[in-house]
Design goal:
Elements: E1 3-5, E2 11-13, E3 16-17, H1 39-51, E4 60-66, E5 72-78, E6 81-83, E7 86-92, H2 96-103, E8 106-113, E9 118-128, H3 131-138, H4 143-151, H5 161-174, E10 187-201, E11 209-215, E12 228-232
Antiparallel strand pairs: 1-2, 2-3, 4-5, 4-8, 6-7, 7-10, 8-9, 9-10, 10-11, 11-12
The structure holds flavin mononucleotide (FMN).
């Protein structure tokens, strides 16, 4: 249905008035005594509820990076590992996001679990993960995804969809007799070591619960309560 911008600046989409879209957040609370003593336990607890419930791709997270001029960019990637060291995702190392991380490793990760009226916001610093861990993950992927990684010069401009499809066929032929597809050197993983992890639970009247773990120790170990302080933020 066609959206219309009205003379007063409001937007209507058929019978839907965008400004009237609102729900009351009444699914739960997050109090200090409910909060785990470390961000790892709290994250895995909420993640299990998200992944085991109604959330489609609970491991989808929005990664925000900045370019050299301070312009932020966001995009969704999939969380592929959570460990005491941090949060890992895999991508092309010549992509826009990887270029930006190479220039400024400070990133944020946002898990938007709307159906649970929750979000988790991580800020931190990204670093490349070792090649051994990249290989282990790459070879666990379906063969077509491995071919896809070789095919896509991620974030570069294509002349057409046909160009991409032709690239895929070319790579497919190149590796037709290969039992093991090598890991492209331009493909890898980023580990985000957290400096803060905020847990947000929607509440009625927009008086939401926001509890943030802030990193205090030199080493960032998500499982060590002594490495973190907890504060409540105003919604
Ligand atoms: C649900 C979802 C999951 C995605 N997962 C990944 C991923 O794990 N790695 C990746 O490189 N891109 C992933 N993408 C594509 C990215 O959002 C993005 O388009 C791509 O990485 C290029 O981003 P960049 O040009 O900012 O570097 C995903 C997109 C969606 C919608």
């Amino acid at each position: 249905m066609e959206a219309t911008v009205n003379s007063d600046g409001s937007v209507t989409n058929g019978d839907i008035r965008v400004q009237d879209l609102r729900i009351s957040y009444e699914q739960g609370v997050l109090t200090e005594d409910m909060l785990a003593s470390d961000p790892f336990t709290q994250f895995t607890r909420w993640f299990a509820e998200a992944a085991g419930g109604s959330i489609l791709e609970a491991n989808a997270m929005v990664v925000s990076t900045v370019d050299s001029g301070g312009q932020p960019t966001s995009r969704t990637v999939l969380l592929k590992d959570i460990s005491p060291a941090g949060f890992t995702f895999f991508t092309n190392l010549t992509s826009t996001k990887s270029h930006q991380i190479s220039g400024n490793p400070q990133v944020s990760l946002l898990f938007p679990w709307y159906e649970l009226h929750r979000q988790v916001l991580v800020t931190g610093v990204a670093e490349l993960i070792p090649r051994g861990a990249v290989e282990e993950y790459f070879w666990s992927r379906p063969r077509d995804s491995q071919i896809g990684a070789w095919t896509s010069d991620q974030s570069s401009e294509l002349a057409s969809r046909a160009e991409l499809d032709a690239n895929f066929e070319r790579v497919n032929e190149r590796f037709a007799s290969a039992d093991v597809i090598p890991v492209p050197e331009f493909w890898g993983g980023w580990l985000v070591r957290a400096s803060s992890v905020e847990f947000w639970q929607g509440r009625p009247s927009r008086l939401h619960d926001r509890l943030v773990f802030r990193h205090t120790a030199k080493d960032s170990d998500l499982t060590q309560p002594s490495h973190w302080t907890v504060a409540r933020l105003s919604p």
